[in-house]
Amino acid sequence: MEGKEEDVRLGANKFSERQPIGTAAQMTEDKDYREPPPAPFFEPGELGSWSFYRAGIAEFIATFLFLYISVLTVMGVAGAKNKCQSVGIQGIAWAFGGMIFALVYCTAGISGGHINPAVTFGLLLARKLSVTRAVFYMIMQCLGAICGAGVVKGFQPSKYQMLNGGANFVAPGYTKGDGLGAEIVGTFVLVYTVFSATDAKRNARDSHVPILAPLPIGFAVFLVHLATIPITGTGINPARSLGAAIIYNRGHAWDDHWIFWVGPFIGAALAAMYHVIVIRAIPFKSSNKC
Questions:
Q1: How far apart are CA 95 and CA 97, in angstroms?
Q2: Does pLDDT of 26 surpass 70?
Q3: Are 166 and 263 in contact (CB under 8 A)?
């Protein structure tokens, strides 16, 4: 036990957090972690790779399953005569968060487990993937979401239309500004968690702390849903909102639909900037290179 405790102590203190930004101490040659190069802006070679298309298929299937389970859960709560006989808002939040946990776990090694155009957009801004891959992922995510909601409607078409089909819109009593703000902050929480949970620097520095990346990501989705379901039904995922809106296809679902694209993309951009500029200070490190 003493040997293990010593390993933990050394691991915890190997990377000091007291060094000023951009100092030579942070960039010594003997550190375990080296900053990976940014992804190329455009990588046409990906288009001839099977792994590229396999990743897109994984995003399609994951988003399909996400919409299938989540929309069915939302409809189950909306259609219950007595809310005590349903899983309630907490159950909806668990369904969304739990599915993200499971699906990120299943697809992280294939596509990175984005399952959300806002997550893909944030990672693109941080230069974690190319525009080629980002656009392909977003298309496959949206197609998967449409198919997932479509299957739910195919099972119970009349109930689907009667129960709003899981579509997102700003709830009565809230303004469009309230809805936009909720989507921005909620997506910021999610994308910030994604960056933190998948940060290779953190894994190198905190290797003594076991972490399963899908767990905090799924938990973030759960918490955001608890907070914002009463406001917007919680989008924070443009593909999820688009899939339900297209299959439901009623006026009020489209009236506020722009909020569920603009809000998540702004939130993702802010999270990417915060992670790159403040948390990782990558521009400062680059400017100090000789």
A1: 6
A2: no
A3: no
The C-alpha R_g of the chain, in whole angstroms, comes to 21
Name the pTM for this structure: 0.83
- The number of residues in the chain equals 290
Q: For residues 1 and 10, what is the distance between their CA atoms, to the nearest angstrom?
A: 14
Cβ of 153: how many Cβ atoms within 10 Å? 20
- Identify the CATH number of the domain defined by range 46-277: 1.20.1080.10
Q: Which of 154, 216, 166 is nearest to 190 (CA)?
A: 216
Check the CA dihedral 231-232-237-238 and report its sign. Answer: negative
State how far the Cα of 27 lies from the Cα of 80, in Å rounded to an integer. Answer: 59
Q: Which residue ranges make up each domain of the chain?
A: 46-277
Tokens of 99: 């599915």
For 163-190, write each residue's pLDDT tens digit: 888 999 999 999 999 999 999 999 999 9
Which residues, including other chains, have CB under 8 Å from residue 69's CB and lie 6 or more apart? 95, 99
Long-range contact set of residues 173-181: C-beta below 8 Å, sequence gap at least 24: 174/231, 174/232, 176/256, 176/259, 178/231, 179/231, 179/232, 179/256, 179/259, 179/263, 180/259, 180/262, 180/263, 181/263
**Is the distance from CB of 153 to CB of 243 less than 8 angstroms?**
no
pLDDT number for residue 81: 75
Residue labelled with tokens 């819109």: 169
